[in-house]
Write a structure and sequence with these properties.
Elements (H helix, E strand, L loop, with lengths): L5 H7 L9 H8 L3 H11 L2 H8 L6 H11 L1 E3 L14 E3 L2 E3 L3 E3 L5 H4 L3 H11 L3 E4 L7 H7 L4 E6 L5 H14 L3 E5 L9 H6 L9 H8 L2 H9 L15 H8 L6 H10 L3 E7 L2 H9 L4 E4 L13 H11 L5 E5 L5 H9 L4 E4 L1 H33 L12 E3 L1
Parallel strand pairs: 4-11, 5-6, 6-7, 7-8, 8-9, 9-10, 10-11
Antiparallel strand pairs: 1-12, 2-3
Helix pairs in contact: 2-3, 2-18, 3-18, 7-18, 17-18
Length: about 400
């Protein structure tokens, strides 16, 4: 028996530098999106967290799409030189570093005062696509100034009051956005039970327990009170209450004719989001859209809606090759993105993922989410035996 030298012990027992900031300490140790979500839940009022985390009805649509991703089994190829893997691709002809973009989210500065400016800046710095929502809390012009040079898209609702839509299109075009992403799955708002229970309705009717819970998060309250008031920045020139504004924004009379009108009106790229059938995919490609996003709004509209991943192979086969197919909803790991690409998707968009990061630590939290996705994608590409995303095919996965 020998007594080890201190130099030998020191090599095996290195301690990290102490960090007194609990958020930074937690983020540094986060190894998955689940860890980021747990940090977000800890530092954010329940009503705000539930607004992001929840979905419509019994939340079955969200559960089912996550279960489907978890049922994916990869089928790797061995003895392939994967010393260098390349996870880059293009979204509508523009190079991106990962097949993962940041999808549109409303009320974003409610999650964290840094809001869309933080997420768009992180997207730009990592060469990822970012989509600003019509119901976002940063204006199209301000976002372009803060995230200049980024691959920024604008998500559009065609309003009942068409003057709102005309004004937005003029502003977005003048600001230099490359792409409009038209959402087609919101004729009315979905029934989100968590928000009703928390009183996070339009207008808000907060319960006593919700107000007390917010008081337990003084940092969030302080930041909410000391930064610009929460508003729909793209629509702040519109008159009326928030409820009246939303009733004008969501148009239950939307048809394929409106898509054709928008295609004629908008000179840039046009993507339709909220596609939930092969039939609708064919109609949209015939109307001239450049891409479609298979999406059930993250389960936040119609509960028991189709799972986008199940639709993916049939939709890819049904639309022309020049109509790019994306999907969103239920993506919690880079492996989910790779599975979608293997079945023919150009890429995926995430909403909750970057909001969890934002709630967990603002800009730093969003950066951590990107770091995790990048590590997951590149590592699992190597383990699958593929050098590029183009090497992925349906042969690489099956559903258990």
């Amino acid at each position: 028996m020998r007594i080890p030298r201190w130099s030998e012990i020191r090599e095996l027992a290195q301690f990290e530098t102490p960090n007194l900031n609990s958020r930074e300490r937690a983020l540094a140790r986060a190894a998955s999106l689940s860890d980021i979500r747990a940090i977000a839940k800890r530092f954010t009022p329940r009503a705000v967290f539930d607004y992001t985390d929840g979905s419509a009805g019994e939340e079955l649509a969200l559960l089912r799409q996550r279960q489907l991703f978890r049922s994916v089994e990869f089928r790797p190829t061995a003895l392939v030189d994967v010393s260098n893997v390349d996870p880059s691709t293009t979204f509508l002809g523009t190079p991106v570093d990962l097949p993962i973009g940041f999808g549109p989210t409303g009320f974003t500065r409610m999650m964290h005062h840094a809001g869309e400016e933080a997420t768009a800046s992180v997207a730009r710095d990592n060469n990822l696509a970012f989509v600003l929502s019509t119901l976002g809390t940063t204006s199209p012009e301000d976002l372009q100034r803060v995230a200049a040079g980024g691959n920024n898209w604008f998500q559009l609702y065609i309003s009942k009051d068409r003057s709102i839509t005309h004004d937005l299109l003029d502003r977005v075009e003048s600001a230099g956005y490359s792409t409009i992403e038209l959402t087609i799955d919101t004729p009315v708002g979905g029934i989100r039970r968590r928000d009703i229970r928390n009183g996070l309705t339009v207008p808000p009717k907060l319960t006593v327990s919700t107000a007390l819970d917010m008081a337990l998060h003084p940092t969030w309250v302080w930041n909410a009170l000391t930064h610009e008031p929460l508003e729909f920045a793209s629509l702040k020139n519109s008159e009326g209450t928030v409820g009246e504004l939303l009733s004008r924004v969501f148009d239950a009379s939307l048809t394929i004719d409106d898509v054709s009108w928008l295609r004629d009106r908008w000179p840039g790229k046009l993507v339709a989001k909220g596609v939930q059938s092969v039939t609708t995919s064919k109609e949209l490609s015939a109307a001239g859209v450049d891409g479609i996003v298979l999406s059930n709004h993250g389960g936040r509209q119609l509960d028991r809606a189709p799972v986008p991943m199940e639709l993916l192979p049939d939709v890819v086969a049904a639309v022309p090759e020049d109509c790019e197919v994306y999907l969103d909803g239920g993506i919690t790991d880079g492996a989910d993105a790779l599975a979608a690409v293997a079945l023919g998707a150009r890429g995926v968009f995430v909403g909750r993922a970057h909001l969890y990061g934002l709630m967990a630590g603002g800009r730093s939290g969003v950066r951590k989410v990107v770091e995790l996705f990048r590590e997951q994608v590149t590592t699992q590409m190597a383990l699958l035996g593929v050098r590029t995303l183009a090497d992925l095919s349906p042969e690489h996965i099956r559903f258990r």
